[in-house]
Design goal:
This protein is of the alpha/beta class. It is 35% helix and 15% strand. It has two domains: 63 residues, no CATH class; 190 residues, Type I PLP-dependent aspartate aminotransferase-like (Major domain) (Aspartate Aminotransferase, domain 2). A hairpin with a 6-residue loop joins strand 8 and strand 9. The longest helix is centred in the last third of the chain and has 16 residues. It is globular and about 55 Å long.
Length: 273
């Protein structure tokens, strides 16, 4: 029934749908000079929390919310403030870090340093779910007063994940619409922070409304029509059928799975396009 030739490796692109394609073709952008950025920000932040496919909590402990140009801006903002060598990053995270620094030295649970913040993805790309040592990492960061920042780009395309963001060590986290709606061509997301920093570049751009209203308008069309976990709800049952038919190991990420021995990651977009 399912053809293994459709598996994608090593790329793991997000899933698309006919509904997303139809909306993309139908959108026309009007005069957006009066577009309410503040209202959109509040609605977008709430939209991310309304994720029935996961059990997420602790948002209320992060009152500072800023719009971002996808999670890439969130990541680049942390790199610009700390330098790539001033961040602690675990192996098998976002490949971008190795492109920025080909000689990157990855941190381990045993080598966590209390002089540098940790930046990590949650869900974690190499594990296609929460990092296997996430609870231990959080415990060490709490014990040693290490700041932890979470790139949650894939959380909108994940299911069956339970997580409470309200851990003392977690200082910020971010999500975007890209993986939820295949919107990498129109990047919009939200960053949650415990405290406001008036010298932070993202906060400055938000304070001055130096944001593309056209980009926000397009994102709003998807947000108004589809729940954040739309692809998970639409494809979850078939996802498990594909994995069973092709003898693949399922994960917590709707667009990706493991080989049965976990040695390879495969993208499943071609099965749903």
């Amino acid at each position: 029934m399912y053809n293994r030739e459709k598996l994608i490796h090593p790329a793991l692109p997000p899933l698309d749908t006919e509904e997303f394609d139809n909306l993309r073709a139908a959108i026309t952008v009007p005069d957006v000079r009066d577009f309410d950025i503040g209202k959109f920000k509040s609605s977008a932040a709430q939209h991310f929390t309304n994720n029935d496919s996961n059990r997420l909590s602790g948002f209320e402990s992060f009152p500072q919310k800023d719009l971002i140009v996808g999670c890439q801006q969130y990541v680049d903002n942390l790199i610009s403030k700390n330098g790539i060598n001033g961040l602690q990053i675990f192996e098998h995270d976002y490949h971008y870090y190795q492109r920025v620094n080909p000689d990157i030295k990855y941190v381990t649970l045993d080598t966590l340093d209390n002089t540098k913040p940790v930046l990590m993805a949650m869900p974690f790309p190499g594990h296609l779910g929460k990092h296997r040592n996430l609870e231990k990492i959080i415990a060490v960061c709490n014990e040693r007063n290490i700041d932890l920042h979470l790139d949650c780009a894939w959380l909108v395309a994940a299911f069956d994940i339970e997580f409470n963001f309200n851990q003392p060590c977690i200082k910020s986290f971010a999500m975007s619409f890209s993986k939820a709606y295949s919107l990498s061509w129109n990047k919009v997301g939200v960053r949650w922070s415990r405290e406001k920093n008036n010298q932070d570049t993202i906060t400055i751009l938000n304070q001055t409304n130096a944001l593309s209203k056209h980009t926000l308008y397009v994102a709003k069309q998807y947000m108004d029509r589809f729940p954040i976990d739309y692809v998970c709800k639409k494809y979850k049952n078939e996802y498990f059928k594909i994995c069973q038919s092709l003898k693949l190991r399922p994960s917590n990420i709707i667009h990706a799975c493991f080989s049965i021995e976990r040695s390879k990651l495969y993208g499943l977009k071609n099965f749903f396009s």
